[in-house]
Amino acid sequence: MKHDITTPLFHGLSTRLLLWFLLLSLLPLAVLGFSSYYNAKISMQHEATIKLVSIARFKAQQLEGYFTNISKSLIALSRSGSVLGALPAAEIAFKDGGVLSQNYIAVERTYRPLLSHYAQTDENHDLFLISTDGDIVFTLAREKDLGTNLMTGPYQDSVLAKLFAEVMYTHNVGVSGFDFYKPSNKLAGFIATPVFKRNKLVGVLALQVNMNQINRLAIDYSGLGSTGETVLAARDANELMFLTQLRFDAQAAFKRTTEIGSTLALPMQQALQGSGGKGFSTDYRGVNVLAVWQYLPHTRLGMVIKMDITEAFADVDRLTEISLLIALLTVIAVIIAALFISKSLAAPIGRLTNAIRDIEHGDYSGRIKTDSSDEIGELATAFNSMADSLDHQRQQVLVKTAQIKKRSATLAAANEEIKSFAYIVSHDLRSPLVNMKGFSTELQFTLTEINEIITQCSDRLEPDEREEMLRLINEDAPESMQFISTSVDKMDNMLTAILKLSRFGRRELQFEDIDLKAVCNEMLNSLKHQIEAMQTQIHMEELPTIYNDRLVIEQIMGNLLGNAVKYLSPERPGEIHISSSSSNAGITITVSDNGYGIGEDEKDKVFQIFRRGKHTEMKGEGMGLAYVQTLVRAQDGNITFESIENEGSRFIVYLPINKQGKE
Q1: In this predicted model, what pLDDT tens digit does every residue of 5-45 receive, in sequence order?
Q2: Which of 11, 178, 428, 632 is most buried (most C-beta within 10 Å)?
Q3: Is the dihedral of CA 304, 308, 314, 317 positive or negative?
Q4: CA dist., res. 210 & res. 207, Å (int)
């Protein structure tokens, strides 16, 4: 098909396009739009940060106010008649006979009802009366710390002991940090105040605070959207410990920890080191967040108020979408203008396009004629040169394709010859092996007869000669015969394997609907003894019904499951997982285990015939995976594997869907 372009063209195409696009003033509009968008984005990000700062201040005030109120109540209680009467009475009774004496029990019976209503609430765990000597002379909870001394006893290093020493020194109310308290077997914080009677220090009143109120404060997500949360943590040696449940981990309290110096929870690490701030970080989930953090000196806690960046900057994302929409509309307007401009140039370019389409559909004869000397003329000249080059290359490709088809036919014939040769060799070599096996047995009978004859003639031989002959007949010869027999058996197994592969290449596949789960259960039942011996757990997902050759599927799953069981490690209970995934193109079957695994030096030999790896004590010919690979490739599928030595292996088989007989 010939294309003749003779329509005169306007000169200066580049100049005309430049004038039109300058007329549209895209560049000034783009600069103005980006500047407005950037300023709005910065403003929204600043507003989101200010919002978190305000929430953090409010939370800190709530927490500090909570402890301030408890401190005031504790001071008032220390001046009450109940405490001023109970402390000296309990101290005297304790020193006279201990906490089990009748006097102490009488004192406790008198004052316990007066003090119980204060301490045993949802916010307080226990109330302590401590003498100036450090003896815990009274507690409501009666835990293991009752009757011990905080200066010399088993809990002298506890947070309560440290707080007692601080209050005795300052004579002021004090608040401890949060740490694990052994008598209560949980994380605990304490508030303590000195007790004065007639201006004389007579002891210390201490309160063990529950975490319930602090947890309620933390799980109040008001103003924090769907991803924001308040995180409180205390430092424990080289770790920070989360004190309350987290929004995305309800069991985090006292259980989740993060190592100081790690890349996670950096804001909390900084807060516990006494610094505050705001910015972007990665939280305990590994999610990018906007965070505000500060140290709470009154309670020695770190507090982080955070929110996922995706939610914190949702307004920014909406602004981005609006900006993109405006940009898109602007681009559309420019495109419309460009189409209008190009209308005057469409005719010659359209003819050039038609010529290119002719080439696309296989007609390489078309060339473009033009008298134009502008950019269109240069384009036509370049096109003609390209068409000549493509036509020449097409002719070369046709020649190469014919050569490849010829070689493919030759290779197919050679492949069939190889299969026939393997069948003939494996079959015909059986006869010599059978003869060798039979004659070796016959030779064994002959040696037995010779041994009997030598025994009868032993009196005619010298002792050394008789001993040497008996050694040759009874030891060396049988050992050689055993070696020959073993080698014959091994050779026979190898020929059987080769014959099996050869026969499969000659077998016509018979496709039918197969319940893959039933096939796997059948294979596993045959391995039941080994599975129970290795205490193996089988995890089998729902498997589909597939359309394939039953013998092929049974051989594939039998070999994969057999290997998975055979190479389980005796050092741990076995686990085998069987799963599948289907698509319109085919099915992927996965079998994984936690067995010996495959070393890096063995991975390139996994599918080689007769290769068995390091664990040669396992029975087999080394044919299983080679056979599976042959079966899979026969259906244009593939088999791959992933393995880590001493951890386990995963074999993945892909089989394309065969629709033969389904129409």
Answers
A1: 444 444 455 566 556 656 665 667 677 767 776 777 787 77
A2: 178
A3: positive
A4: 10
Answer whether 0.90 is exceeded by the pTM: no
Determine the 3-state secondary structure of 250 from DSSP: coil
Query: Taking residues 413-429, what's their average pLDDT?
Result: 52
Residue 459, pLDDT score: 67
Q: Is the same domain home to 615 and 524? A: yes
Residues 565 and 641 both lie in one domain: yes
198 lies in the same domain as 259: no
Helix (H, G, I), strand (E, B) or coil at 199: coil
Inter-residue contact 81 to 111 (CB < 8 Å) = no
pLDDT of amino acid 1: 47
The reply to whether 99 and 166 lie within a common domain is yes
Residue 301 CA to residue 295 CA, distance in Å, equals: 6
Number of compact structural domains in the chain: 4
Per-residue pLDDT reduced to its tens digit, 147-186 = 999 999 999 999 899 999 999 999 999 888 777 889 988 7
Q: Do 635 and 540 share a domain, yes or no?
A: yes
Higher-scoring residue by pLDDT: 225, 17: 225
Q: What is the pLDDT of residues 627-644, one digit of tens each?
A: 788 888 888 899 999 989
Residue whose tokens read 């197994």 = 493
Residue 103 tokens, joined? 């006097």
List of residues 6+ apart from 9 with CB closer than 8 A: 345, 348, 372, 374, 376, 377
Helix (H) or strand (E) holding 274: none
Looking at the predicted structure, is the pLDDT value of residue 518 above 70?
yes
Same structural domain for residues 618 and 517? yes
In 210-355, at which residue ranges do the beta strands (DSSP E only) sit? 229-236, 239-242, 257-259, 277-282, 288-296, 301-308
Q: Which CATH number do you get for residue 87?
A: 3.30.450.20
- CATH number, position 629: 3.30.565.10
Cβ neighbors of 378 (< 8 A, separation 6 or more) are none
Cβ-based neighbour number of residue 482 at 10 Å: 12
Domain stop point among 444, 471, 506: 506
Q: How do beta strands 586-593 and 200-209 pair?
A: unpaired
Q: What is the tens place of the pLDDT at every residue in 619-630?
A: 555 567 887 888
Which residues lie across from 639 on neighbouring strands?
653
**Structural contact between residues 597 and 615, judged by C-beta atoms closer than 8 angstroms:** no
Give me the domain span that covers residue 250: 213-312
- CB within 8 A of 470, min separation 6: which ones? 451, 454
DSSP summary character for residue 298: T
pLDDT digit string, tens, across residues 234-248: 877 788 888 777 888
Place of tokens 């290795």: 534
